[in-house]
Amino acid sequence: MALSTNFISGLSSGIDWSTMVDNLIAVDHQRVDLITSQQSDYQAKLKEWQSFNTKLLALKTAADSLKSPEDFGMFKASMTTDSLTVKGSDLMTVNTSSTASIGSYQIKVNNIATAEKLRSITYADASSTLGSSYAGDILINGKTVTIDATDSLTTVQNKINNANTGASPTGVTANIIKYGANDYRLTLTSDITGAAGIDLQNGGVPDILSQFNFSEVVNGVDASFTVDGVDISQSSNTVDDVITGVTIDLLKADTNTTVTLNINRDIDAIKSNIQGFVSKYNDVASYINTQNSYDTTTKKTGGLLFGDGTLFSVKSDLTSIVTESVWGVNSEFTIMGLVGINIDTNGQLSVDDETLTGYLQTNFSDVSALFVGQGVTSSSSLAYVGHTQNSKAGEYTVHIDTTATRSTSTSNTEVGGTLGSDETLTITAGSKTADISLTSSMTISDIISAISTELSASAIDITASNDGSNHLVLTSNSYGSSHSFTISETGDSLWTTVGPETVNNGLNVSGTINGEAATGSGQILTGNTDNANTEGLSVKYTGMDTGDIGTIKFTTGVAELFDRTLFSITDPYEGYVSFKETSLQNSIDDFQTRIDQMEAQLQLKKQTMINSFVMMETALNNIQAQSSWLTSQISAAEGGWKAL
After folding, report:
1. Residue 1 above 60 pLDDT?
2. Longest dimension (CA), the chain
3. What residue segments make up the domains of the chain, in order of their start?
4. Which of 217, 558, 562, 570 could serve as 117's disulfide partner, Cβ 3.0–4.6 Å?
5. Buried b vs exposed e over 167-177: b needs ≥16 C-beta within 10 Å?
6. 641: pLDDT confidence band, cut at 50, 70 and 90?
7. Alpha helices in 164-292 (DSSP H)
């Protein structure tokens, strides 16, 4: 147990041992100070690496915006009209995607689509009971809404809106509008535009609808417009399936105005991404140059990472990409310098805008290929799908052993005339189910139509067809073994099997790429992990032939290479900058452990020294007290003897 240190240093001994102890500990603490200084150096270096890693990640993001063909699929729309007063933007808005193409179109908006709106008769209030004349069912777009005699206008509104939920909503919204005192009216508005509007029917014998006496406020009509003189109509004002890659939102009709819509490449946006990449590269290169600089006059290094081997590796890896020729592209466009992106003696990139713009206008595909990672196939039945970081550039033969097929089933019974008996057919695919009611009088065409309607409503991706001999055929629209479905019937009129039939006879494509193993999923064939060249390289085969069916030429452009290299540098799990940061942090933690241990030892040493001096002071104090007592006793004794 430590002794009390509540003693004044040197009180008994006259020695300032407290200062002596502090000085001795200070001398010993120099070892701790040395390690603390080393720890501070490592902390400063770690901070520098973290700052540098941020710049590297910014460069990776810039490279990401140029590494895919879709990144060069940037288009812009412009509109002119033949009117002096009406602008194209008054009639429509236009957006483009990467699948658009250069083109010019003449468009005229005849009318825009509207949503049907109905309004009831007037009610004195919204809360009073409607009465027995309103009791019954109504059908709103085929869905039943039951109204009770005790319901009020508000209750009816809520019931209608509750029916507009779930997997099969009505698509109709109800509202109560107060037009004035004692003037409340129920309105029904279609959630979608178009002539289909609102299908409103009585659900039984009571004529409930005559009680509400709905009148049309807004007529639901389809949008009508022309594209290059061809009339087109549809229920929505959003036109996204007429011109590939272009979405048009119709705003206003004007039959007297023709809009000329021009779709062109957005060269400025692409150049902006390239300039952004160049800027981020220069940030990285400038940082490395500053760190590795040396002032011969002051004999000072430029940064804490001067001479760092990892920093040199980063510089070497990135610089090599800038000067490296890209395999597989046009020989006149194999390095960035050939399209106006040049590197100077300080390792800084610059963009010759005139040169780059010219090549983007005249050799767009060549410039794109210089940057992106992409595959080009030799056969129309073979398509490039994608790749991974480990897919290597090269031209590879695709060999097909087995073509993909779809799960399909043909009914046992031929429906030459009519079905002959009522039947409920249930088709289940995954979590989705369609129940189809078939009647005895249905022909094969009627059956196919009924099934198609229900499959579409249930979002089940299966097609019903006739095999040519009046047998019903159900076929999955997706290829491969993972797309199965189940058929069950109440009367077994078609398949004549007992119990549900599971259809899972679809096959995945099988084969090799470059002679290396590949795994099929539907029509997609992907190079296996650890393949020397084709790991992660995916193709889609839609043909029927087997054997060597074509080749895929896969190229890795500059941005793709930068993305891969920066991944190996910055990845938080595998990147070597991350390893560097982890190593520094581990050293910092080790230093802290040593510092804590040494501080504890010094504190123990100090306490031991203090305890020793305190014990000395205590002993001296006791001796001095005894000396004083003896002196007093001797003096008293001498006084006593003198008195005799």
Report:
1. no
2. 159
3. 8-74+268-372+557-606, 75-113+222-265, 117-218, 375-403+509-556, 406-503
4. 217
5. eebbbbbbebe
6. low
7. 208-212, 267-291
